[in-house]
Amino acid sequence: MPSITTTTLSFLWFLFLVPTFSFAPTPTRAIVTKTKPLLAHRNVIVLSHNVSETVADGRFDVNTLLTGRVDVLARCVNAALWVSHGIRRDTTIFLMLFPQNLTVEIRGEDVKGLNPDERTMALYLQRTLLVGSSADRKRSHANSTVTEKKDSDRPLIVNPHKPGSRSKSEKKALRTERKAREAMLRRIRKSTNETTFPQGFALHRDDSLIERMASLEKEGALLSSILMFEESGDTLWDVMEGEDFQQRRDEGGTTTLILGDQIGYAPCDNEYLAGQATVTRVSLGPLSLLTSQCIAITHHYLDRQGDR
């Protein structure tokens, strides 16, 4: 049997004693943080006017959201629902699309599988609009095509040896357009076979601002604070520090935000809301902000009050 040298014994003693030293590594415990439940439910109503028939039918390309300004709708939903690594379960957002009188309702407490990017949100909105369409409209979507450029649009002479031919850049642009169109049609055909909305999404037809407000009141929002955003309104923080707002907050009332899109309010919106005694016109300052920014800032103010 080989003998154990002094060096080996010293090394074994070192391994035995190291765990008792103060600098020895210790196992770490996972830190679990719990999100504080928010005090009251929140409704966000975005009034979007001049929505094209293509957007209302869900026939838009999610890779070019600027067309039809679907990007504005997606940003508003993300600002209303998302926090870091989570969803605001106490918030519901209504996208009211005029003149088609459609309303997309998204409940934070029910949504699943979302990502905080505009393209994913646009896909969910597209599926909601397609599933909510009638059978005839679905068939028209499945058979829809995008008109190609006419031969008369071709340059008369690009290559003198091949009259009427297209340039390389034009051919590349047409290929890119065709691939995007085919991908969009594949998504539409797939969505036309869907019979259910994405979880947490719903579509209301023949909806109006008057009917939407009446529906919210039936759900128990009579004690709610209704805030209409415009540049000439009262300062939001001063309104939220007022006695009436504080009382409704303490009673657990619902806070409802009403905002316009990049176009603003229609005259009928102003006329109706001006006649409502429960509506308070508020402002975040003289500088016009994006609708999504107004939503995020108001969430921050409400969170501050909820932490008191």
TrEMBL record:
<keyword id="KW-0808">Transferase</keyword>
<keyword id="KW-0949">S-adenosyl-L-methionine</keyword>
<dbReference type="InterPro" id="IPR029028">
    <property type="entry name" value="Alpha/beta_knot_MTases"/>
</dbReference>
<dbReference type="GO" id="GO:0008757">
    <property type="term" value="F:S-adenosylmethionine-dependent methyltransferase activity"/>
</dbReference>
<dbReference type="Pfam" id="PF04013">
    <property type="entry name" value="Methyltrn_RNA_2"/>
</dbReference>
<keyword id="KW-0963">Cytoplasm</keyword>
<feature type="signal peptide">
    <location>
        <begin position="1"/>
        <end position="30"/>
    </location>
</feature>
<keyword id="KW-0732">Signal</keyword>
<dbReference type="GO" id="GO:0008175">
    <property type="term" value="F:tRNA methyltransferase activity"/>
</dbReference>
<protein>
    <submittedName>
        <fullName>Uncharacterized protein</fullName>
    </submittedName>
</protein>
<dbReference type="InterPro" id="IPR029026">
    <property type="entry name" value="tRNA_m1G_MTases_N"/>
</dbReference>
<feature type="compositionally biased region" description="Basic and acidic residues">
    <location>
        <begin position="167"/>
        <end position="177"/>
    </location>
</feature>
<keyword id="KW-0489">Methyltransferase</keyword>
<feature type="region of interest" description="Disordered">
    <location>
        <begin position="135"/>
        <end position="177"/>
    </location>
</feature>
<dbReference type="InterPro" id="IPR007158">
    <property type="entry name" value="TrmY"/>
</dbReference>
<dbReference type="GO" id="GO:0030488">
    <property type="term" value="P:tRNA methylation"/>
</dbReference>
